[in-house]
TrEMBL record, chain A:
GO molecular function terms attached to this record: NADH dehydrogenase (quinone) (non-electrogenic) activity; NADH dehydrogenase (ubiquinone) activity; quinone binding
UniProt entry keywords in alphabetical sequence: Cell membrane, Membrane, NAD, Quinone, Translocase, Transport
Every NADH:ubiquinone oxidoreductase 30kDa subunit domain range: 135-250
Protein name from the UniProt record: NADH-quinone oxidoreductase subunit C
PANTHER family, alphabetized: NADH DEHYDROGENASE [UBIQUINONE] IRON-SULFUR PROTEIN 3, MITOCHONDRIAL (PTHR10884:SF14), NADH DEHYDROGENASE UBIQUINONE IRON-SULFUR PROTEIN 3 (PTHR10884)
Superkingdom, taxonomy of origin: Bacteria
Self-association and partners: NDH-1 is composed of 14 different subunits. Subunits NuoB, C, D, E, F, and G constitute the peripheral sector of the complex.
Family: Belongs to the complex I 30 kDa subunit family.
Biased composition (Low complexity): 63-83
TrEMBL record, chain B:
Recorded topology in the membrane: Peripheral membrane protein
Origin species: Thermoactinomyces daqus
EC number: 7.1.1.-
Lineage of the species this protein comes from: Bacteria, Bacillati, Bacillota, Bacilli, Bacillales
Name of the protein this chain belongs to: NADH-quinone oxidoreductase subunit D
GO cellular component terms attached to this protein's record: plasma membrane
Pfam family, one: Complex1_49kDa
TrEMBL record, chain C:
Subunit annotation: NDH-1 is composed of 14 different subunits. Subunits NuoA, H, J, K, L, M, N constitute the membrane sector of the complex.
Catalytic activity: a quinone + NADH + 5 H(+)(in) = a quinol + NAD(+) + 4 H(+)(out)
UniProt record, GO biological process: aerobic respiration
Protein name: NADH-quinone oxidoreductase subunit H
Main localization category: membrane
Keywords: Cell membrane, Membrane, NAD, Oxidoreductase, Quinone, Translocase, Transmembrane, Transmembrane helix, Ubiquinone
Family of the protein in this entry: Belongs to the complex I subunit 1 family.
Organism: Thermoactinomyces daqus
Biological function: NDH-1 shuttles electrons from NADH, via FMN and iron-sulfur (Fe-S) centers, to quinones in the respiratory chain. The immediate electron acceptor for the enzyme in this species is believed to be ubiquinone. Couples the redox reaction to proton translocation (for every two electrons transferred, four hydrogen ions are translocated across the cytoplasmic membrane), and thus conserves the redox energy in a proton gradient. This subunit may bind ubiquinone.
Highest taxon in the source lineage: Bacteria
Membrane-crossing residue ranges in chain numbering: 72-95, 107-127, 147-165, 177-195, 233-251, 263-283, 295-314
Principal EC category: translocase
């Protein structure tokens, strides 16, 4: 039996098993509920004004139950991890994240410096360690990046992650920054169109972005404008296509 | 004026000191390096692409092959990220087993680094001593999970195998043994005049540069920055253990060596405490649905691998397979600084500096 | 007489080849033990035939000459490297009677002829048309020329004491006190310079594996490669003999133990030196090329000159003057 078949079977089994006992074990997470949740992120169309919405977390994380109020961002896994209580709890408004005030502060400052509309959306990503997350369009990214790096009360000097994601509707580049001066952290999701995926390069601000941008270009075909040396890095120079794009056709489908 | 001519030297991908299949295009003037450009990708297997067609459990063995010197931490990166996204609870016993194997793996990895590094600077014996001691760790792993390099040991929600009877005691014995061995290593290497002259004051970089290039692990700590994710953003049960984070003062290669050797000592401390606190009995797997369907969402978690911050970025669309899985491989970030460090050095320092970064090509190319 | 004159060198060649064969085995075994390994133990009893098998393999290997190499020089280089290594053995007195020449300038001859090998190595590195080989050849030339100076300077003290360049005379004058004691500074400088001349760890930069892959002989295969290796080990033989002759009293027996034949004494002392060379290899990291140069010119050379000065002064001091 191939892996896929096995997988399929297990999936079916799982579905059957779960149907007749909706709340037998109150402690088990009900993923069904989450999947059926009608709220779907359609980020390409959202023109929500820039406001931090305490208690209204990102659409994608609505089903998530509140986490420990005390779990600060610096100690994500420490202490007891609270279980999502039960299905009922999901309907209750979530407790505000402990990092909500921080996000609000960031947003106020950003609004002062960049004006309205620079940040498309802002929320606390409750999965894991409550990271304040900003969603921006690529047009505003360069000025925002500059600000994040250089502004006295941000000083995000350490690039922890640069990752590209193909959402099929659009492309995203996800950055994770850390500030050694202040010890705070932020995630930025920069959106760009899919056909002409272009994002301004920030390799002059964070040298660490250099190879990462090349990698994202190589695997996802995101062009980083003004990158000093945007060439393929992992794939051979003469490779056709960008493998991590969802419309990429593999050479050999069986592999 | 004497006219000299620059020449291009192609170091690798087959070269004894590139630790795998790294290629360096080095422009040299005599033996002085004018410019260096790393070329990577020779070991690219498309782990991230493959992961999109695999369910979360099936991805775990692929992570073994990334940083093949510390496969346990790689295992942990993916299962930890998945667990965080699902909000799973891990049984005590599994947490302890995880910490023990991860720290053992850190020691094994640092031993390999130490051995190969000394081989890079021309000393042959420490390599074999290091491998002798690493063998002890691999035997322990072999007993625990039946594998010596690629363990495939952790699972979302726990670990695959419970410790066989007597295993924990063996780990305790190993800790004592290793403490003794550390004295030997210091006697053999730390005071060696030639080793000191090869590494002191070589490959120095500033704090600012290290941060700018996103270095992590010993490469960052050597500049004096106290940044260890086990302490600063504790995961698993690390907050229960007492240990120090060794940092460097000058940022040279000798400091890096000392940093890593001290990390071995700290790891031994953690293992010792974990062995003492190890819970009797209990489950090794948490309550996990048979088919892992990770709720829709996005997560990034970083853990401290022997080489630095090993991050795992998962974008899930609520399916049993990740929509996008990205690993932040510490070696990939750390390697970027190499051309800066190499400028103006000579060929002998090339291997010393490259070795000091401690890259694993399986991880760089992913 | 003339038959002996032909046969004796042939016999010496056989002895030297046997030495090289077992020196390699000995080296691998010794280093193996030092590193918690067994060493070769498959071919023949106790691995005795390992080197024979290795040499046989080298001889039947395809002889590869790189296309862009300078063919004539490429072929010539191993010979240039090997011939002087063997030629220097002519002046080494193994015992009172076992010697080839009684050459008045034996020490000078040794130093002069042995430096010809550098040309072989450089030519080999150059002719290979390989950048690693070139770097290795250049390093080798720089290193050997630099270290030849302290090497020669360090033995001047002995020459001053003996008043002769004849190696027989030098051994004779060590009847009572070996030169290692009065000439301890000279001995240390000589030993370090000798290790460097031999291109052995910690001075094995010309063929530094982790840096230059294999240095000057990276392109050599088969019997040409074997010639380079042979030259290297014959130099180990020669240098260990020379050290014995110059500083360890040659065939002279210590503590009046003349009951043991002089040749045995020579061999024992000689093996001690050889063992020391192998021991170093298991212990030391490799020194860096710029440090190597600095060490030669800034440390060894002044020390060697100081040793000459010291010898000259002490020669005139009553009481200990007769040691010098």
């Amino acid at each position: 039996m191939s892996h896929e078949e096995q997988n399929e079977k297990e999936l079916l089994k799982e579905e059957k098993e779960l149907q007749p006992e909706p709340s037998a074990d109150a402690k088990t997470e009900k993923k069904e509920g989450e999947e059926n949740n009608p709220v779907k992120a359609e980020p390409g169309e959202s023109d929500a004004p820039v406001t931090a919405k305490p208690g209204l977390p990102p659409k994608s994380s609505v089903p998530r139950a509140p986490r420990a109020a005390g779990a600060g961002k610096a100690r994500p896994a420490a202490g007891a991890r609270p279980r999502p209580a039960a299905k009922k709890a999901e309907k209750k408004p979530e407790e505000p994240s402990p990092l909500q005030p921080q996000l609000d502060r960031f947003l106020r400052l950003l609004k002062d410096r960049l004006g309205e509309g620079a940040v498309k959306e802002a929320y606390i990503n409750r999965a894991g360690s409550h990271i304040p997350t900003l969603v921006v369009d690529k047009e505003h990214w360069l000025s925002l990046a500059q600000l994040l790096k250089e502004e006295e009360s941000f000083q995000f000097d350490y690039l922890r992650l640069l990752s590209g994601v193909d959402y099929e509707t659009h492309m995203e580049v996800v950055y994770q920054f850390y500030s050694f001066a202040h010890g705070h952290q932020i995630a930025v999701r920069v959106k760009t169109g899919r056909d002409e995926a272009k994002v301004p390069s920030v390799s002059h601000l964070w040298k660490a972005a250099d190879w990462n941008e090349r990698e994202a270009y190589d695997l996802l075909g995101i062009h980083f404008e003004n990158h000093p040396n945007l060439r393929r890095i992992l794939m051979p120079d003469d490779w056709v296509g960008h493998p991590l794009r969802k419309d990429y056709e593999p050479l050999d489908k069986e592999v | 004026m004497l006219r000299t001519e620059e020449m291009l030297l192609n170091v690798g991908p087959q070269h004894p000191s590139t630790h795998g299949v790294l290629r360096l295009i080095v422009k040299i003037d005599g033996e002085m390096i004018v410019d260096a450009e790393p070329v990577i990708g020779y070991l690219h297997r498309g782990t991230e692409k493959l992961a999109e067609d695999l369910n979360y459990t099936q991805i775990i063995p692929y992570t073994d092959r990334m940083d093949y010197l510390s496969a346990m931490t790689n295992n942990y990166a993916i299962v930890h990220a998945t667990e965080q996204l699902m909000g799973l609870e891990i049984p005590e016993r599994a947490e302890y087993l995880r910490v023990i194997v991860m720290e053992l793996n850190r020691i094994a990895s640092h031993l390999v680094w130490m051995g190969t590094y000394l081989l890079d600077v021309g000393a042959m014996s420490p390599f074999l001593y290091a491998f002798r001691d690493r063998e002890e760790i691999l035997n322990l792993f072999n007993e625990l999970c039946g594998a010596r390099i690629t363990y495939n040991y952790m699972r979302v929600g726990g670990v695959k195998w419970d410790a066989p009877p007597g295993w924990i005691e063996k780990v305790g014995t190993f800790v004592e043994y290793m403490k003794k061995q550390m004295r030997d290593y210091h006697a053999l290497i730390t005071g060696n005049e030639i080793f000191i002259s090869r590494t002191k004051g070589v490959g120095v970089y500033s704090k600012e540069l290290a941060i700018q290039y996103g270095l992590s692990g010993a490469n960052l700590r050597v500049t004096g920055i106290d940044w260890d994710l086990r302490k600063k953003q504790p995961y698993s049960i690390y907050s229960r253990f007492e240990f120090d984070v060794p940092t460097g003062k000058t940022g040279d290669l000798y400091d890096k060596y000392l940093c890593r050797m001290n990390e071995v000592v700290e790891s031994l401390k953690i293992i010792e405490q974990a062995v003492n606190q190890f819970p009797e009995g209990g489950s090794i797997m948490g309550k996990v649905p048979r088919v892992l369907r990770v709720p829709e969402g996005e997560i990034y978690v970083g853990i401290e691998s022997p080489r630095g911050e090993l991050g795992c970025h998962i974008v899930s669309k609520g399916k049993d397979k990740p929509w996008r899985l990205k690993f932040r491989r510490p070696s990939f970030y750390n390697l970027q600084i190499l051309p800066v460090l190499l400028k103006g050095e000579n060929i002998s320092n090339l291997v010393a500096i490259l070795g000091g970064i401690d890259i694993v090509l399986g991880e760089v190319d992913c | 007489m003339s038959l002996l004159a032909i046969l004796a060198p042939v016999l010496l060649l056989v002895i030297v080849l046997a030495f090289v064969t077992y020196a390699i085995l000995f080296e691998r075994k010794v280093i193996g033990w030092m590193q918690n390994r067994i060493g070769p133990n498959r071919v023949g009893p106790w691995g005795m035939l390992q080197t024979v098998a290795d040499v046989f393999k080298l001889l039947i290997k395809e002889d590869v000459i790189p296309e862009k190499a300078d063919r004539a020089l490429f072929k010539l280089a191993p010979a240039i490297a090997f011939v002087p290594a063997f030629a220097v053995l002519a002046v080494i007195p193994f015992t009172e009677t076992w010697k080839f020449t009684d050459f008045a300038v034996g020490l000078l001859y040794y130093m002069a002829v042995s430096s010809i090998t550098i040309i072989g190595i450089m030519v080999g590195g150059w002719a290979s048309n390989n950048k690693y080989a070139l770097l290795g050849g250049m390093r080798s030339a720089a290193q050997m020329i630099s270290y030849e100076i302290p090497l020669v300077m360090s033995v001047v003290g002995i020459i001053m004491t003996t008043g002769s360049l004849n190696l027989n005379d030098i051994v004779h004058s060590q009847k009572h006190v070996w030169f290692i004691f009065p000439q301890i500074i000279g001995f240390l400088v000589f030993l370090i310079a000798a290790v460097s001349e031999l291109n052995r760890t910690p001075f094995d930069l010309p063929e530094a594996e982790s840096e230059l892959v294999a240095g000057y002989h990276v392109e050599y295969t088969g019997f040409r490669f074997a010639f380079f290796m042979l030259a290297e080990y014959v130099y180990v033989f020669a240098m260990a003999s020379l050290t014995t002759v110059l500083y360890l009293g040659g065939w002279n027996a210590p503590f009046g133990l003349t009951i043991i034949p002089p040749i045995i004494w020579f061999i024992l002392k000689f093996l001690l030196v050889v063992f020391f060379l192998f021991w170093l290899r298991a212990t030391m990291p490799r020194i860096r090329v710029d440090q190597l140069m600095q060490f030669a010119w800034k440390v060894l050379l002044p020390l060697a000159i100081f040793n000459i000065f010291l010898t000259a002064v002490l020669k005139e001091v009553p009481g200990i003057g007769h040691f010098y």
